[in-house]
Amino acid sequence: MNGKVKWEIVIGLETHAQLSTASKIFSGASTAFGAAPNSQASAVDIALPGVLPVLNKGAVERAIRFGLAVGGTINKRSVFARKNYFYPDLPKGYQISQYEIPVVQGGSIAIVSPTRGAIKVALTRAHLEEDAGKSLHEGLDSHGALGRGMTGIDLNRAGTPLLEIVSEPEMRSAEEAVAYAKTLHSLVMWIGICDGNMQEGSFRCDANVSVRLAGETQLGTRCEIKNLNSFRFMQQAIEFEVHRQIEIIEDGGKVVQETRLYDSDRNETRSMRSKEDAQDYRYFPDPDLPPLVIGEAWIGRVKESLPELPDAKRAQYQQRYNMFPEDAAALTASVEVATYFEETLSALRIRSDLKYMSQGSDAANAKSVANWVINEIGALLNRADTTIDRSAVSPTQLAGLLAQLFNDAISSRSAKDVLAAMWAGEGDADAIIAAKGLRQISDSGAIEKIVDDVLAADPEIVAEYKAGKEKAFNSLVGKAMAATKGKANPAQVNAILKRKLVG
After folding, report:
1. Is residue 340 part of a domain?
2. Does 287 map to a domain?
3. What are the distances in angstroms from CA 352 to CA 82, 131, 349, 369?
4. Which of 14, 50, 77, 188 could form a disulfide with 194 if both were Cys (CB 3.0 to 4.6 A apart)?
């Protein structure tokens, strides 16, 4: 198949971010995850006769935060509509959403495409809506409350506040779609509007996928892949769907517009239902909810509460510390990682005993700290399957370890051993270094004596080095390090050996 040459892939994403409010968008019921089925469904959520919705102010503020973060337009007046469809987990027979006038219009998400470099994906809109309930198709508990072949309805999610974020169809590969989704995922957590927990359904994406001949401007027939709740599954689902559509067209068929589901066990998409258009939902303004009016003062207050955004912080790290773009991106993957890095760096700066700070630049120090946070702390977090805000080693503790390393008190190899011991709860760096006898020998006189002994004991290796065999030098370094049980400062050993051999 010549898809890479002949075909252009067109992808747009619709993302549902569950807003981090304690209560639902139109009722006071809890949004906490994991409660017993139907224990958090109020009279409003289950649509008892005569009940009326009341809009959650916190949900609106989170929508405003998002709009400001992506450079969108906050509509001063937006309208809630009823989206009519019939499904067992939708108790009212309609979903309260926004259609013609959403709370946020426009904006963009900056990503790095593996083929096109730095690009911006334009956003169409972001609108507020309520979630539906959930259909359960397997046993609920050990008492068999839901038997085989039965379906139960849990309305705990009904009324949960969502911000639906719709992109323009501007992504051209599964990799770009994943990059966009990851960036958006990081952003909604960074600005504190969503916890981003994909396993619990707090962040889920629908991918609209179509293909067209390269160079064409008219969009092909799209299929929507629903409820992708992992980045890996998103990439696999899109790649499968692209191949499926291309094969259909190349075999003389036509792609049918429809909604599809991704089966991760079989790594394939399958038809769910024919795709509905807007008119099928019979949108009309909700008569129980007045227009949402957002004043400039409210927008101003929300703007003042926004943290520095990831793009700005990445640029700051690159400019101030001459940091590699990939390192700056890793440090701004979440606000917790950025905070950990900055707190570690601050703790180092206030240490009066740090020779490194007086001898080197702040940029060099920052890049060293970044390396330890990204690689060493990152590896420990991965093995423990935890996040950096739950790290067993605090920023202050890491700074204490790095101070010893930068002061040449321990070797880099020993520093990694000390970090592992700190993670295991054996104490701070100073105590572990003392207990394990890891302090490095940096006395030049002591090292010079050891080097003299090695040279005297191994004249054959010295002769080989002087004859031009570079590997002989490494052998001499190894012998000197072995004589000190690895405690000698390697840089000093190298320097003294070279001076002795050249002399």
Report:
1. yes
2. no
3. 64, 55, 8, 17
4. 188
Handedness of CA 205, 206, 211, 216 (dihedral sign): negative
- Closest by CA to 436, choosing from 451, 452, 455, 419, is 419
Whole-angstrom distance, CA of residue 240 vs CA of residue 263: 11
pTM, two decimals, is 0.83
Strands (E), 252-291: 258-263, 268-274, 284-285
pLDDT in tens, 298-346: 999 999 999 999 999 999 999 999 999 899 999 999 999 999 999 999 9
- 484: containing domain: 444-502
- Write the pLDDT tens digit of every residue in 9-60: 999 999 999 999 999 999 999 999 999 999 999 999 999 999 999 999 999 9
Q: How confident is the model at residue 296 (pLDDT cuts 50, 70, 90)?
A: very high
CA distance 34 to 159: 16
Among 266, 19, 301, CA closest to 160: 19
Of 303, 336, 371, the one marking the end of a domain is: 303
Look at the chain and report how many structural domains it folds into: 3
SS (HEC) of 285-326: ECCCCCCEECCHHHHHHHHHHCCCCHHHHHHHHHHHHCCCHH
Do 357 and 313 lie in a common domain? yes
- Domain shared by 134 and 255, yes or no: yes
Confidence label for 4 from pLDDT (cuts 50, 70 and 90): low
pLDDT tens, residue by residue, 118-137: 899 999 999 999 999 998 87
What residues form DSSP beta bridges with 203? 17
